[in-house]
Structure formats: structure tokens, C-alpha cells
Design brief:
The chain has six helices and 21 strands. It is mostly beta strands and 383 residues long. The chain has two domains: 4-22 and 44-189, Immunoglobulin-like, CATH 2.60.40; 211-355, Immunoglobulin-like (Sandwich), CATH 2.60.40.420. Strand 10 (194-195) and strand 11 form a beta hairpin. The longest helix has 13 residues, at 231-243. Bound molecules: copper (II) ion (CU). Copper (II) ion binds next to loops.
Length: 383
């Protein structure tokens, strides 16, 4: 018996389908690397950090120990239904099952070697375009894999900074896969670590990776969000919403409220926290309510001096930026996209719970709220 999914897959495999590029045309899009000379990296040490789910970042040295290494990572592409708001479902496409995909950290001069798996249960071709990489569409043209295939790509991390990676399987598949969840970020640290605006070394006590996603979920005539069987099933309805450029959701880490409540970030007064913020598709403007950006690499590129004392910084769609803040007061801080409609109504809010001792010199409520007598104080709104 042919299931609906089989029928869709059959249709998708036809050469004219936008979902899967057939072998002949796929070959034309593979970058010809045959002119390259063999590179012998056999003397370099290899390390294999285990990727972790954002907002966490895998353990790493801030200052590199020793010379360049080959840093091996593995990622598995997982297509799965994800609840992005209570009762609202997306047929998501993910790297390692999370939105955003995991943060990878290497040092400038290291080689990043990624093995990417597209399990046979998936329905679509996928790949990875690293904005940190040079050539072959960021590696996208050398990593396009069908369900059931794996591929390994190595690139040299030549530019320090925070960079987006995302799926880019060609044509209209590119935005669709990105707004279905397929993006993440890598951080290429300078070998001698980060420097402040005066070129002095700076370290962080904690790092959090916040991946912002814009989603375009279609509704039925009654205004209820539609739910689909698989990504292909939802494609044309989502495409129509995408064309309007108005997201139904703007989230941090894949779900409204993912980084509030039990998922809130934590810090202590006196800790310097590095926030890395990526947006693969759309502009954003991170703002820490009640705090600041002490050092902000708005463009995310560490060879540029950081800006200091910022209130809000700008993340261009298709980039990742970095900011360090030392918390000075305890309490709940909201970390938002300061388009406040997106923050409050569409989902782009995280919380940071900070513990420590309050500093009355920095702020004090000198008179608590109290009713006043208009007759004696004279403050009236009447003309
Ligand atoms: Cu993809």
C-alpha cells in the first residue's frame, strides 16, 4: 500500500520537484575541487568535543593551548514536529534536534571537521553553509546529502568571530529550511582569547548561546494554527505566509518561553556573561532590560574592537553577535529583542535570574509607592 508520505516522496523525487534536486542537476551544483593539491594535516592533534544543546555551549579553552588542532564535530539532522508555543506545532528541521543547532567553538587557525548525518527517516535533502568558511558556498555545495547519507567537511577557521551556519539546499528550499529551524552558530576565538576596547585580555565566566528564529505558521479559516504530517505536507501553506514577511512567532531557542521559567538563564552578581545571539534570516536588536552591553561585538567579529556601554545592539539577519556583561545587581533581567512587539507578543524574551547582594548606590527606591494629596501637592492632570 502506498501511503500519503510515499506519494509525496515519489513526487518530491521527480526532477521538477523543488524538494529534492535530482542527481544530475545536483552534480552540476557541486563545486569542482579537483584542482586542489593534497594537504597533509596528519601531524595535527585531533580533539572531539561533544556538542551540547543551546543555550549551553560545550566546554572550551578561552585561550588556546598549543598550536592548531583539528576539531571534530558530529551533527545529525532531525526532522521532527516541535511545539513552538503551547498547542502550536511546526514540522521542524533541526541540527541535532534543537533550534538553534548547537554552538561549536574552535580557535583561529584550527580546522573544523564536521561529519553531518541525514538519517534515512528524514524526507528531505539537507546541507550546511558555514559563514565562517571559505569557498564552495560556505561548504554548502560539498555537503548536500540525501536521507540515509552522511558527509564530512573540513575547513580552516581563518577569521575570529561568531558566525551563523545554516542549511542551504538550493532555491526556495533555502529560506524554507532556515525558517523551519536549520541554523546555528560557531565561535572562532582568537588564539590568545578576547580583548577589550583597549586591547587588554578579557575573559568570561559563563557563556550562553541564544538563537533567534522567525517562524511563519499558517492558520485555517477559523484562525487556528494548522498542523501537518511532515515538512512537505506543510510547505505550500507555510510558503504563502513566508511571502508576506510577517512572522507568526519570533522565539529564542525554538519555543515561546524556552528561556523563561524553568529554562531561565542564571548568573551571579560579579560574573561576566558572554551572550552570543544569532539570527539566520531576519534582523534583531538584543537588549538586556536593566543591564547593558559592557563589550559588544555587534558584528560578531573579534578582529574589530568591541563597542562599550551599549543599551541595544543590532544583529543583522544572517549574522551572530557577541556581548559581555558583568551583572552588578541581583534580580530578574529580561533579555529581549527590542522590537517589543516581537519580544512580548511573538515570543522573543529570555530571563536571566541573577543572585547576589543589592547595591543601593546604583539604585534605591527612596520613597515606596504611596497615595498623595492633590490638594496639598498640587500635582493634577487636569488642565
Ligand atoms: Cu535542510
Amino acid at each position: 500500500m502506498i501511503t500519503r508520505r510515499d506519494a509525496l516522496m515519489g513526487a518530491a523525487l521527480m526532477a521538477s520537484s523543488p524538494f529534492i534536486v535530482n542527481t544530475a542537476s545536483a552534480n552540476e551544483e557541486v563545486t569542482d575541487t579537483s584542482s586542489g593539491k593534497a594537504v597533509d594535516l596528519s601531524s595535527l592533534p585531533r580533539v572531539k568535543p561533544r556538542l551540547v544543546t543551546p543555550p549551553m555551549v560545550h566546554a572550551h579553552d578561552q585561550v588556546a593551548i598549543g598550536g592548531p588542532k583539528i576539531v571534530e564535530f558530529e551533527m545529525t539532522i532531525i526532522e521532527k514536529e516541535v511545539e513552538i508555543e503551547d498547542g502550536v506545532y511546526l514540522q521542524a528541521m533541526t541540527y541535532n534536534g534543537s533550534m538553534p543547532g548547537p554552538m561549536m567553538v574552535v580557535h583561529e587557525g584550527d580546522y573544523l571537521e564536521l561529519t553531518l548525518y541525514n538519517p534515512p527517516e528524514n524526507s528531505l535533502q539537507h546541507n550546511i553553509d558555514f559563514h565562517a568558511a571559505t569557498g564552495a558556498l560556505g561548504g554548502g555545495s560539498l555537503t548536500l546529502i540525501n536521507p540515509g547519507e552522511k558527509v564530512t567537511l573540513r575547513f580552516k577557521a581563518t577569521r575570529p568571530g561568531t558566525f551563523v551556519y545554516h542549511c542551504a539546499p538550493g532555491g526556495p528550499m533555502i529560506p524554507w529550511h532556515v525558517v523551519s529551524g536549520m541554523s546555528g552558530a560557531i565561535m572562532v576565538l582568537p588564539r590568545d582569547g578576547l580583548k577589550d576596547e583597549k586591547d587588554q585580555p578579557v575573559t568570561y565566566d559563563k557563556v550562553y548561546y541564544i538563537g533567534e528564529n522567525d517562524f511563519y505558521l499558517p492558520k485555517d479559516e477559523d484562525g487556528d494554527y494548522l498542523r501537518f504530517e511532515d515538512p512537505i505536507d506543510g510547505y505550500s501553506d507555510m510558503f504563502d505566509v513566508m511571502q508576506g514577511l510577517i512572522p507568526s512567532h519570533v522565539t529564542f531557542n525554538g519555543k515561546v518561553g524556552a528561556l523563561t521559567g524553568d529554562g531561565a538563564l542564571t548568573a551571579n552578581v560579579g560574573e561576566k556573561v558572554l551572550f552570543i545571539h544569532s539570527q539566520a534570516n531576519r534582523d534583531s536588536r538584543p537588549h538586556l532590560i536593566g543591564g547593558h552591553g559592557d563589550l559588544v561585538w555587534e558584528l560578531g567579529k573579534f578582529n574589530n574592537k568591541p563597542d562599550i556601554d551599549l543599551e541595544t545592539w543590532f544583529i543583522r539577519g544572517g549574522s551572530a553577535g557577541a556581548a559581555i556583561y558583568e551583572f552588578l545587581q541581583p534580580g530578574v533581567y529580561a533579555y529581549v529583542n527590542h522590537n517589543l512587539i516581537e519580544a512580548v507578543n511573538l515570543g522573543a524574551t529570555a530571563h536571566v535570574l541573577v543572585e547576589g547582594v543589592w547595591d543601593n548606590d546604583l539604585m534605591e527606591q527612596t520613597v515606596a509607592p504611596v497615595e498623595y494629596d492633590v490638594a496639598t501637592e498640587g500635582k493634577t492632570a487636569l488642565p
